[in-house]
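Lecture notes, part 5. Sequence design as translation. It can be helpful to think of inverse folding as translation between two languages: the language of shapes and the language of residues. The source text, in structure tokens, appears below.
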């Protein structure tokens, strides 16, 4: 079971008929499709930013119907619109986590649920490339690039696109610097507690 299937299954098992679901940062809309196949009223929204633009993978007839484009952090729906809000591997990419969680809280109905899957800075494996500890280095670190280069020579790394180990290391570290924001868990917990509730962990589930 991948993350998309997990999110869809978890939402389905925790919702009643007629519930409405939002996938925040939906990308190409895989979770939205899975939920709608299960008979749930699901829509998605995304800013389709340069570091992860899936807009070309979305059918024209879906835009503005099941997939909505966001402007900045603003979710394009009124207050209290959804029973369930999903975000899958999204929140490590947002610049202002406080603003984003506040927006999710705004569109969530009273008693609703937010399911968030994303890494904090304490995880040991950088999930976008699979190289351990790569996100622990400071942004702009040349030692990080050298470390990534060495790891790639040893066979580590995803999305290599036939690049040389050095070019892959340079390009991926630049992407990591520009598009990811790994935060300490204490910061994440404080923000969720402020706008929603203290996080309830689902790893064992």
């Amino acid at each position: 079971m991948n993350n998309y299937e997990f999110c869809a299954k978890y939402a389905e098992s925790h919702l009643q008929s007629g519930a409405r679901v939002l996938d925040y940062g939906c990308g190409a809309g895989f979770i939205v499709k899975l939920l709608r196949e299960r008979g749930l009223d699901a829509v998605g929204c995304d800013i389709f930013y340069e570091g992860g633009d899936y807009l070309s993978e979305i059918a024209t007839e879906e835009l503005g119907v099941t997939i909505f484009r966001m402007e900045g952090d603003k979710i394009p729906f009124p207050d209290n619109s959804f029973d369930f809000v999903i975000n899958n591997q999204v929140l490590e990419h947002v610049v202002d986590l406080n603003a984003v969680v506040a927006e999710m809280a705004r569109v969530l109905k009273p008693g609703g649920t937010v399911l968030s899957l994303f890494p904090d800075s304490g995880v040991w494996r950088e999930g976008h490339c699979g190289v351990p500890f790569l996100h622990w280095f400071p942004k702009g670190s040349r030692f990080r690039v050298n470390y990534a280069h060495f790891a790639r020579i040893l066979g580590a790394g995803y999305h290599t696109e036939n690049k040389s180990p050095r070019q892959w290391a340079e390009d991926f570290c630049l992407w990591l610097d520009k598009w990811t924001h790994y935060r300490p868990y204490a910061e994440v917990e404080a923000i969720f507690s402020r706008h929603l509730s203290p996080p309830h962990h689902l790893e064992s589930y």
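The translated text above is only one of many valid answers, since several sequences can fold into similar shapes. Residues 43 and 66 are 5 Å apart (CA to CA).
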